[in-house]
Amino acid sequence: MSIGADPRSAAGLYERKWERFSVNRQGMLMTVGFDLAAPKMRSCKLVDVSQGGASFVVTTTIGLPLHYYLSIVGVASRIGCAEVYRNDNRIGVQFIKEIDEELLHTIVRSDYFTGGVSNKPKQDDRRYMVGVEKAGVGSALS
Fold this sequence. Notes:
Shape: globular
CATH superfamily of the domain at 15-113: predicted glycosyltransferase like domains
Low-confidence stretches: 117-129
CATH class of the domain at 15-113: Mainly Beta
Number of helices: 3
Mean pLDDT: 76
Strand order of the largest sheet: 1-2-3-6-5-4
CATH topology of the domain at 15-113: Thrombin, subunit H
Radius of gyration: 23 Å
Number of strands: 6
Distance between the termini: 77 Å
Largest sheet: 6 strands, antiparallel, barrel
CATH architecture of the domain at 15-113: Beta Barrel
């Protein structure tokens, strides 16, 4: 039996089903209690997203159930989520129903246009009159 034929081989064990996209978007988690009273809203910050799931950060996980809806600011859809992991304030979810490519591209594109994620490393701001600071006030520059 070859290595590729074994379904438990190391190559296939950790492969992802969907491509992930890093985003920096605000979102809201909407939970509905058993009493079907007014939904409770909680803000979150989306870290990455794929067709099958997402991860985000919340200020606190206290009282957050394992199933809720995710609304992303600027996107009209609500996405049903089932929690997969919690690591302190970072949460990973699997979508109840995969989102289509068009919605995924809308989320990623709108993040790009609003300047949420940049592939360029952040550069230090140039200070005005840098050379004057080094020479000091009143000293002769030669």
